[in-house]
Design brief:
Number of helices: 11
Oligomer: single chain
Shape: globular
Strand order of the largest sheet: 3-4-5-8-9-10-11
Strand content: 5-15%
Radius of gyration: 19 Å
């Protein structure tokens, strides 16, 4: 798999998200040894970019990733995130956010222990804390970098002014936001800003939690507890319309002798050379299928045609429930004048 660059950080063209390896969106508990096997098999197939966070579990997915990467730790890029208000001793997730500098440093110590490593290659602020100036956050990360505990940093779902301020204080390597054929919001202003600043872009939910892989049809209904049950994009009243996008993807899959998931991921990678999607999977077959996207190429005319078809379909329904969306696009407060 050809490498890509997020700023100055080299990674595989496709990464692996491990968010659901402790519990899937459908609320089932995966078999832990198989999750370790999936991570190790991904590495054997060229994946060097593994995305995690203290909030996943909380803590448990970091432990799975740390166990799985023993033996090849120095050959991969390990990612984690801080920012939710998680009790550092018990792992209990309390309401709200916490990016106080002293908390960040302690949270990173916990992540290092669980990942069984001496440094985090890329550390994100998971969500912007509306109480803490981003300059103070950057200062804490800068201290961790000076100690060799963090090598690169990034932000997720931040407001754009906050990104500019953060980058001015401490150069940002990557931004992580939702981006896919199902949600193209970053195309408006965020991707141009990343291009201007030389920041890489890491799309999460690149397959729309299965939607763009063709795993959902008009009759699909979600059980209580499934994260998709609260999303109106996949509500019964919107599914028939939104499935027009899946029909386009399936037609291109036939045309390119690929799967819908591979077309969806290849489309993302074709948008910019500094975009690196991180599809997650708890099934070996799905993980291997996703990696096949690296072999799907579009000629310029083909990409223009596909882009036009995707943009012609206006997705109905909100991207996220309001209670979740409230944590996105937040601007950090200004640092008080001394």
């Amino acid at each position: 798999m050809s490498p890509r660059r997020l700023g100055s950080l080299e990674v595989s063209a496709i990464g692996l998200g491990v968010q659901n390896m402790h519990r899937t969106f459908q609320t089932t508990i995966p078999y832990r040894p198989e999750m370790v096997n999936i991570i190790r098999t991904a590495f054997e197939h060229g994946v060097t970019f593994f995305d995690c966070a203290e909030a996943y579990g909380p803590h448990e997915d970091e432990r799975i990733l740390g166990d799985a990467t023993q033996g090849f730790r120095d050959q991969v890029v390990l990612v984690s995130k801080f920012g939710w208000n998680i009790d550092l001793k018990t792992g209990v997730r309390n309401p709200g956010l916490n990016s106080r500098p002293e908390h960040i440093k302690l949270a990173v110590e916990g992540s290092l222990r669980r990942l069984r490593t001496d440094r985090i290659d890329l550390l994100y602020q998971h969500r912007v804390d509306p109480q803490i100036p981003i300059e103070d956050v950057a200062g804490a990360v800068k201290d961790l970098m000076a100690q060799g505990k963090v090598l690169h940093w990034g932000l997720s779902e931040m407001g754009q002014n906050t990104l500019r301020r953060a980058h001015a204080e401490l150069p940002v390597t990557a931004v992580q936001n939702e981006y896919s054929m199902l949600w193209r919001g970053p195309e408006q202003t965020l991707l141009p800003l990343c291009k201007e600043l030389g920041i890489g872009f890491v799309p999460f939910r690149p397959l729309g939690t299965g939607f763009l892989a063709g795993a959902i049809d008009e009759r699909t209904r979600f059980a209580e507890g499934d994260i998709r049950a609260g999303e109106t994009r996949t509500a019964p009243e919107n599914l028939p319309h939104n499935l027009q996008l899946v029909a386009v993807i399936k037609s291109w899959a036939e045309r390119k002798n690929a799967t819908p998931a591979q077309i969806s991921l290849a489309w993302l990678m074709a948008q910019q050379p500094w975009i690196v999607p991180i599809p997650g999977s708890t099934q070996m077959a799905h993980m291997l299928d996703n990696l096949g996207a690296a072999s799907v190429q579009f000629e310029p005319a083909e990409l223009a045609e596909l882009n036009a078809s995707v943009r012609a379909i206006e997705i109905r329904g909100k991207r996220l429930p309001d209670r979740v969306q409230a944590f996105s696009d937040v601007e950090a407060p200004l640092k008080p004048a001394s």
